[in-house]
Amino acid sequence: MMKNKNLKRFLSGGLVMILTLTGYAQQTDSLSHYLETAVRNNPLINADFASYKASMEKVTQAGAYPDPELEIGFFLKPMEVVNGKQIADFTLMQMFPWFGTRSAAQNEATEMTKMAYEKFRESRNDLFYQVKSQWYQLSNLREQRKNTQAHLVLLNQLEQLALTRFSSPTGGGNSQRSFSSAAQQPATIVGGGMQSMGGGTTQESSVPPATNSMNSMQASSMSSGTSSSLSDVLRIQLEKKELENKLGTILSDTKAAEARFNALLNRPQQLSVTVPDSLQQVLFSTDDRAMLDTITTQNPMLAMLEAEGNAYEAKRVMDKRMSYPMFGIGLQYSLIGKKTGGTDTMAAMNGNDMIMPMVKITLPIFRRKYNAQQRESQFNYQSRRMKYDDTVNKLQAEYTGLKQQLEDASRKVTLYTEQYTLSQSIYQVMVRSFSAGNTSLTDVIAVERQMLDYNLRKSESIASYNTMVAGIQKLVSTTF
Question: Cα-atom radius of gyration of the chain, to the nearest Å?
Fold first, then answer.
């Protein structure tokens, strides 16, 4: 009866899970698909389910009667008896335990089956949590890779802007080259005119001394601007190298995370894992009273402790029943051969086989061991009840901690979203100011770093939030 009940419970739970998986997402590569693959292929889950099926077979065994005993004895030399010669004896005996012993044993085996099933549920829920956690970690790494690549594009644009400043006349590029050509061919004053280095005489210079001084100052300023523009380009290239290194680290972490994810699904570690293009925050709301009630009624750890306590209680009842006498009924059959010779006073019974009904009863007079067995089961029952209460307190505290972390992650997601929006506006303003030469590159890069940092922290907070949701779903034993 219990076997069918547990089987129906598992099949109904499995059907609900499959229907939920089907309705949650129809695409091939999705979280629901990976969860279904994991629960089907994971060796630990299959091992726990096999243990559950094995424990179901013990229910039938516990309710069985003891095997009958058959004794056969032959006389090497037939023994003479009154009515003939006794050749052999056959004794068949069947023992019966005290009333209620078999049902108590079945109750104990049934509760042990419940324990095995709840252990399977706990392993399944833990597997779901690990798959979801790794899934969100992979989604976070993908989001970080996208953000890093986007900021590399921003640095490329900023580099082009700096190169434009470097090559522009005001920035010093072409003017710097003309200034250098003029510096390589200095003019000298000869007599009343100006003689070039080729020896020819030119017209008298009409440039006053003050103008020559201004040209020298302008050339010095142009040289300084050119040097600054070139250093800006080099600094941007250094920043790009750092982001490229960060991108390589992200790709390496992604491969390691994919290997761990594939290990949960029991498939080759080199297979790629498909995650969404963008990491979205899971919609989730909590009702403390409802959640705590659900944890108490649905959490497999509590159900397992409750079943274990009930098993010890059933064992105590069984130990008590076994302390009473056991009864046996049997039949003895004696094979008698005919006696030859002698008087005929017993001729009517000569050679007749004998059949003798038998009754057997055990005498459990050594009571100390039976009393100790009952006390042992009682203490074990009390121990499981206290462990149950302790586990309830721990699970409630764990729920409170997860909820606090969930709220903290939610606040961080909102904070980093707002900070990224503000830093993006600041960045656009500073880039325009930098192109006009009113802002240094150091300030622009600092804002760009803040933008990237806010983006990365936002994706980490979303992944943390979703992981906390998965943790709460594990406590209440729900798949989605």
Answer: 45
Per-residue b or e along 348-377, where b marks 16 or more CB atoms closer than 10 Å to that residue's CB: eebeeeeeeeeeeeeeeeeeeeeeebbeeb
434 and 375 Cβ atoms separated by less than 8 Å: no
Q: Letter for the amino acid at 82?
A: V
Residue 341 host element (H or E): none
- Residue 327 near residue 360 (C-beta atoms within 8 A): yes
| Beta strand 327-337 pairing with 84-96 | antiparallel
Q: What does the block give as tokens for 295?
A: 């944890």
Q: How far is CA 24 from CA 33, 47, 277, 306, in A?
A: 9, 27, 18, 33
Both tokens of 219, joined, read 């050339």
Cβ atoms within 10 A of the Cβ of 125, count?
Answer: 22
User: pLDDT at position 347, please?
Assistant: 63
- Side chain identity, residue 433: S
**Angle subtended at Cα 248 by Cα 247 and Cα 250, rounded to the nearest 5 degrees:** 65
Q: Which residues of 71-109 are buried (b: 16+ CB within 10 A; e: fewer)?
A: eeeeeeebeeeebbbbbebbbebebebbeebbebbbbbb
Residue 324, Cα to own-chain centre: how many angstroms? 51
The burial of 220, by beta-carbon neighbours within 10 Å (0-12 exposed, 13-18 middle, 19 or more buried), is given as: exposed
Structure tokens at 429: 């303003």
In the block, which residue shows the tokens 């997601």? Answer: 413
CA distances from 225 to 7, 156, 172, 316 (A): 81, 21, 6, 93
β 201-202/327-337 pair status: unpaired
Instruction: Convert the pLDDT of each residue in 160-216 to its tens digit.
Output: 888 877 676 554 443 333 323 333 333 333 333 333 333 333 333 333 444 444 344
CA pair distance 164, 172, nearest whole angstrom: 10
Angle (CA) 18-23-26 rounded to 5° is 100
Instruction: With residue 58 as reference, give the H or E element that holds it.
Output: helix 43-62
pLDDT of residue 80: 78
Report the distance separating Cα 91 and Cα 84, nearest Å. 20
Residue 380 structure tokens: 């074990």
Alpha carbons 304 and 307: distance in angstroms, whole number: 5
For residues 287-313, b (16+ Cβ closer than 10 Å) or e, as one string? eeeebbebbeeebbbbbbbbbbbbbbb
